[in-house]
Write a structure and sequence with these properties.
This is Metalloproteinase inhibitor 4. The protein has two domains: 92 residues, Beta Barrel (OB fold (Dihydrolipoamide Acetyltransferase, E2P)), CATH 2.40.50; 86 residues, Tissue inhibitor of metalloproteinase-1. Chain B, domain 1 (Alpha-Beta Complex), CATH 3.90.370. Helices cover 22% and strands 28% of the residues. The chain contains three helices and eleven strands, in the order ααββββββαβββββ. Strand 4 and strand 5 form a beta hairpin. Helix 2 packs across helix 3. The longest helix has 31 residues. The protein is globular, with a radius of gyration of 23 Å.
Length: 229
């Protein structure tokens, strides 16, 4: 009888140990996998975001679940923010007090310092989340043209399609399409890249074309080669 009880206890302990080992392997694998972001034009990131805002980062704290070992870094960073301007999103975005991101960069978490940022991201059940794959940038690093694009030009083109063409000649397949001919310049964002000055805007006839910023009128061309910039 005693032998049977010992065998049952051993079986339970072995099963528990096995489950713990399996969980550790899964968590370690998740930590090792790097964050992967698809290349995208800033306007595409603007249009796909639930909200886009200018905000001041005033503080941060790391929030972790009590049932997960802190060594795995599976918590989230809670940034305290003061919203300065909302470019896209519901009325309640202006009252936002916290922005969240994953603690681990391997899970696309992004580290922000104190200061003003452009933040685009997604509204989740836990709050507003930003990641390495979103349009997040120090506000002072944005050009005047980019700031104008945020105010109205990007929104004008959210019904347009931005496509990549790698083989010349490049022609739009539909009238609401803007074409880029060099994908490599899009990611990561680099200072001075002309692609960041462009906005694909929609016209009254339903067609779309590139607007190159500044005081120029929208271009009649709907293809542009950013590799020559």
């Amino acid at each position: 009888m005693m032998m049977m009880m010992m065998m049952k206890m051993c079986t339970r302990e072995c099963v528990t140990a096995g489950l713990l080992f399996f969980m550790c392997v899964c968590l370690n694998q998740q930590m090792l996998e790097a964050c992967s972001c698809a290349s995208a034009h800033p306007q595409q990131l603007f249009c796909s975001a639930d909200a886009v805002l200018r905000a001041e980062i005033t503080g941060e704290k790391i929030r972790r679940r009590e049932d997960i070992n802190p060594m795995y870094g599976l918590g989230k960073i809670q940034y305290e923010v003061q919203v300065i301007k909302v470019f896209k999103g519901s009325d309640r975005i202006k009252d936002l007090q916290h922005v969240y991101t994953h603690e681990m960069s391997s899970m696309c978490g992004i580290r922000l310092n104190r200061g003003q940022y452009l933040l685009s991201g997604s509204m989740m059940s836990e709050g507003f989340f930003v990641t390495l794959c979103d349009f997040v940038e120090h506000w002072d690093r944005l050009s005047l043209t980019q700031k104008k694009n945020l105010k109205y030009r990007y929104q004008m083109g959210c019904n347009c399609t931005i496509s990549i063409c790698t083989e010349q000649p490049c022609h739009p397949k539909v009238k609401n399409e803007c074409i880029l001919t060099d994908w490599s310049s899009l990611w990561p964002f680099e200072d001075g890249e002309p692609v960041h000055e462009y906005a694909c805007i929609r016209h009254s006839d339903g067609s779309c074309s590139w607007h190159e910023g500044g005081t120029s009128v929208p271009s009649e061309k709907n293809t542009t080669d950013i590799s020559e910039g």
